[in-house]
Write a structure and sequence with these properties.
The protein has 15 helices and 17 strands. It is of the alpha/beta class. The protein binds 3-phosphoglyceric acid and magnesium ion.
Amino acid sequence: MSAFRTLDQADVAGKRVLVRVDLNVPMENGRITDLTRLERVEATIREIAGKSGKVILLSHFGRPKGPDPAQSLRPVAQALADIVGRPIAFADDCIGPQAEAAVAALQPGDILCLENTRFHKGEEKNDPAFVAALAKLGDIWVNDAFSAAHRAHASTEGLGHKLPAYAGRTMQAELDALARALEAPQRPLAAIVGGAKISTKLDLLGNLVAKVDSLIIGGGMANTFLAAEGKKVGKSLAEHDLAATAREIAAKAKARPCEIVLPVDAVVAPEFKAHVPSRVVGIDAVGADDMILDIGPRSIEHAVSVLARTKTLVWNGPFGAFELEPFDIGTIEVAEAAAELTEAGDIVSVAGGGDTVAALNKAGVADRFSYVSTAGGAFLEWLEGKALPGVEVLRV
Ligand code: 3PG
Ligand code: MG
């Protein structure tokens, strides 16, 4: 972690500390459906308040086109206050007289949350005037929002050029875990990449075959690779137009060498519906009317045997159509095996990105992995080997 300034180097006592957090939690009918992101920022908030800093929280919420009461951070700030166990004041704007008055009223150790930064166009444009208006409110900037670090926005990046900048504890833990997983991993290193399409993950696959020792491919994406090898995949989701691309990735892997692990059997059904009659077939026996909806038992065994000779695992994306039973079995069983190997101290396991956390939660193993990132797009860009602006600005 020496490459980044952290809270260890920050003197926060009596200072106005602008803390960029990611309060962009999933909400349905006005209720927060997953509190993980709020729980993750608690440590940084407590530490700064405990050291007599004045905590000023900045975050976006949703993708508003301008001020929109339906995308106010007020209810999220309330939920966060319940988690932190301390009152959190709220200001209806993140810049200007209201924000300035709310900041001026803070005592050391107080916590204030400012309204959704995306209510101002200057946020996403990283507009210097908006950055300056935010910077006026603070003495130092702490970025604890890895999951928004792929955005070069005013509150995620711009402020880092205007104020002394530090990584918060969650950002620090995230960077630590990611470094252990891909930058300086113990080998052998395996990656599991699942999900529907390779078209959205071409850069990611390209970067991974250059780095990992084994690449286990699942989900609809595996069908594209199988079809490219000339296998029949019936009615399964597959991007037949990307056959050449899939072959190129496979050739690049072979040259390194990186072992590509594809399913050897599959659970197939006539349609994508819960509890439709399904059966297990060898990968050479998929019928013209079959849809591949999960990996089969021999593929599960194969994946687990690869993990058993691995020291580090990076996981992104489910194996099958995990949201429908019984097509969640492949994901659940491999995840369970990864959790057991982690608990035995045999592997370091890091997972993240979009559906992955939901899948691992469903498998009941998320808290048994070494680290589960709450980042979606940022985790994917990191797997692609891209520099994240909100991280780069924290480098010493
Ligand atoms: C996320 O939910 O992935 C982050 O909060 C970033 O949100 P965005 O994709 O709207 O920038
Ligand atoms: Mg997103």
